[in-house]
Amino acid sequence: MLRFLRRQSVRWLMLLGFCELMLLAISLCAATYLRYFLNADELAEFTRHLPERAMVFASIIVIGMVAMGQYQAHIRMTRFGLLARQAVAFVLGGFLLVVGYYVVPQAYVGRGVLAIALTLGFLLVMTLRLLFLQLVEVEALKRRVLILGAGTRAAQIHNQMRRRTDRRGFCVVGYVPHASETVAVPQEQLIRSGLPLSAYVLREQIDEVVVGVDDRRGHLPMDDLLECRQMGIAITDLTSFFEREAGRLQLTILDPSWLVFSGGFNGTPLRQLSKRCFDLVAASMLLLLCWPLMLLEILAIRLESGPGQPILYRQERVGAHGCTFQLLKFRSMRTDAERDGVARWASKNDDRVTRVGRISRKLRVDELPQLWNVLKGDMSIVGPRPERPQFVADLTTQIRYYSLRHCLKPGLAGWAQLSYPYGATVEEAAEKLKYDLFYVKNHNLLLDLLILIQTVEVVLFGRGAR
């Protein structure tokens, strides 16, 4: 069910999250004793239900850190950048706690305790993260991976997963070339031991063999691979390896048979029911939280454009199974933005965008009316973003498997929006499709929740907005 949990990097991050949860809970307990140790009566009062209060405090701060992308496996950032995001996460978590204490006064821990706990927790988490960043780079703790093949397909790992953040869960020992393929990886990474594959795997303590030969028909050492399996070595197809480690489907090595036999694409009635319930609950909660912001947006559009100008913008988009629907947005462009009737992608610093629209697009406020589309059932909270029919018609002819993204309802937020910036070309659309297909294939309730929480980071930092 939770296929993305198979990734080594995700398991490392789950361990990190659990350790940070415990440290934050300890921070509140320590803060309570530090604040009231001179007053026995107050100490007795505030230590009642202390474990429960500590876990609530820790959980809210961790949610804030998830929202700021602190648990993303492939995040690329300086240590100062990570520190800044952690600070924003603690501010966000502190704000949520203050609101929570106002709604549920029984959970209140005192301003002094909260301030001490936030400070202490920030320092402890920062220290743990610095140690964690050192620990995950230790080669001895990574899975040792051997690539069977050294041609065009196998070279995808060398070319597409070169960053240190891409290889936090594994290290590539080398590439075993096959006689029938042209070598496409650097010579220094080739393995020419002369030993049988199973013997080399045993000698080098390989944990996983990734099969990436260019032509598998009749060219695989099946006896050696079977012996490796019997020794407990994982044998993984190259496409599955990319899916697990990179969180995307690599289109250049994708074939229909793998899509048919690899699993995923959960469309059972139970999954459809859980997704619909999640959509209704999340959309209703977001409407209750965001209606003041929506009223401010309406007022701002009216003040800038004057009476008689439309507030909402309706546009035809492609939904599930290719059916079209009318998508709602707050108008962020001039009313004559497409007076010639030709559909255009938004460009950077697009002069068609109004002054109010520039701000609302940056903060994603213009997307809020789509909550009505979610309630109607045209859209989901999480899914591939809906595109215009003109774009879909063009992209379907130019990008293989593009139509697969329409097997689910389009979403207000998506895995591609977290993983890739705004796309305004065919090449960028193809890159985003890799992440859309990963979501379509692996979607589940927990992944939806994680994407929704992490979308807060996209909104606050304006990633991908145009």
From TrEMBL:
One of its GO terms (molecular function) is phosphotransferase activity, for other substituted phosphate groups. Keywords: Membrane, Transferase, Transmembrane, Transmembrane helix. The chain crosses the membrane at residues 12-34, 54-71, 83-104, 116-136, 280-301. It is a multi-pass membrane protein. Its main location: membrane. It comes from the Bacteria. InterPro entries: Bact_transf (IPR003362), EPS_sugar_tfrase (IPR017475), Sugar_tfrase_EpsB_2 (IPR017464). It is found in: Membrane. Residues 275-460 form the Bacterial sugar transferase domain. It holds the Pfam family Bac_transf. GO terms for cellular component: membrane. PANTHER family: COLANIC BIOSYNTHESIS UDP-GLUCOSE LIPID CARRIER TRANSFERASE (PTHR30576), UNDECAPRENYL-PHOSPHATE N-ACETYLGALACTOSAMINYL 1-PHOSPHATE TRANSFERASE-RELATED (PTHR30576:SF0). Belongs to the bacterial sugar transferase family. This is TIGR03013 family PEP-CTERM/XrtA system glycosyltransferase.
